[in-house]
Specification:
By secondary structure, the protein is of the alpha+beta class. 38% of the residues lie in helices and 19% in strands. A five-stranded antiparallel sheet has the order 6-5-4-8-7. A three-stranded antiparallel sheet has the order 1-2-3, sandwiched between helices. Strand 2 and strand 3 form a beta hairpin.
Length: 269
């Protein structure tokens, strides 16, 4: 464990033990879990209660997704775990989405002169569904997200020598930098297979501006507000039965009572 966050009830040893930074949750240490399975198979996983190997871990339900760095290597995994939680395999999709956001942030943090956002013709740009390629000033590809690796054959695998953008697209690299002068203008990039992708070329300066514009145009709802809304909904659906609401949310009654005591959950009362 390198980091833990969320509604963790540290008075419950089952939650406290698995969320301590430095805890070894490998398969070698605690048997089959979503964490170990995700890291060994490099695939998203949902593991519920008795599907864990040891009885002591059968109280957990976990959704996990691998995290891939700009070079394509697995750098870790993202896990969501509930204690005595209901069957919720759809959480695997939520974890996959969250992992994509982290992977894209890792790509954008990679040193680069130009960012290529890629998608198939007809699809809108600007979401986490875009492929992302990082280029240096000479056109060498310095990083890619997993979506780009699915779209573009021939990208370097972990540990391999970087490839030039002209090796994967049938176009010289200089016009890409020219296209970045008009970031709103989409360009076509031909793959060597004959298929064509649409691309948006963005310089580092324009990339920062685009992110700031996006953030100001559609501010994200605060995580605390989302949590409060989920708690209110669970309590309402349980008709005020706190125990049932806690089971639905996959948290302890003590944690739910504490959340209900906060102003942002109970509307100031």
């Amino acid at each position: 464990v390198v980091d833990a966050c969320g509604a963790i009830d540290h008075s419950d040893p089952r939650a406290h033990l698995i969320t301590r930074v430095g805890t070894d949750l490998s398969e070698r240490s605690i048997g089959t879990t979503a964490i170990g399975t995700t890291l060994s198979e490099l695939q998203p996983v949902w593991l519920h209660r008795g599907e864990h190997f040891f009885e002591v871990t059968s109280v957990y339900s976990c959704a996990g997704a691998p995290l891939f760095g700009p070079d394509g290597a697995c750098v870790g995994m993202l896990d969501v775990t509930g204690v005595d939680a209901q069957e919720r395999p759809e959480l695997k999709h939520l974890v996959m989405q969250s992992a994509s956001k982290i992977e894209n942030a890792l790509v954008r943090a990679q040193p680069h002169a130009l960012l290529l956002r890629l998608n198939w013709p007809g699809n809108a740009f600007g979401s986490d569904a875009d492929g992302m390629l990082c280029l240096d000033f000479e056109g060498w590809i310095t990083g890619a997200n997993p979506v780009a690796r699915q779209m573009v054959p021939g990208l370097a695998a972990p540990g391999e020598t970087p490839v030039h953008v002209s090796e994967v697209f049938g176009t010289p690299f200089e016009p890409l930098f020219d296209a970045a002068k008009r970031p709103a203008h989409l360009i076509e990039l031909p793959l060597w297979s004959g298929l064509r992708l649409q691309a948006q070329a963005i310089t580092r300066a324009n990339e920062v501006h685009a992110l700031q514009t996006s953030a100001s145009a559609a501010p994200a709802q605060a995580l605390r507000e989302v949590e409060a809304a989920m708690i209110r909904k669970a309590v309402d659906e349980a008709r005020g039965n706190v125990g049932q609401a806690a089971r639905t949310l996959g948290i302890s009654r003590a944690t739910l009572y504490r959340k209900l005591g906060q102003k942002n959950v109970c509307g100031g009362g």
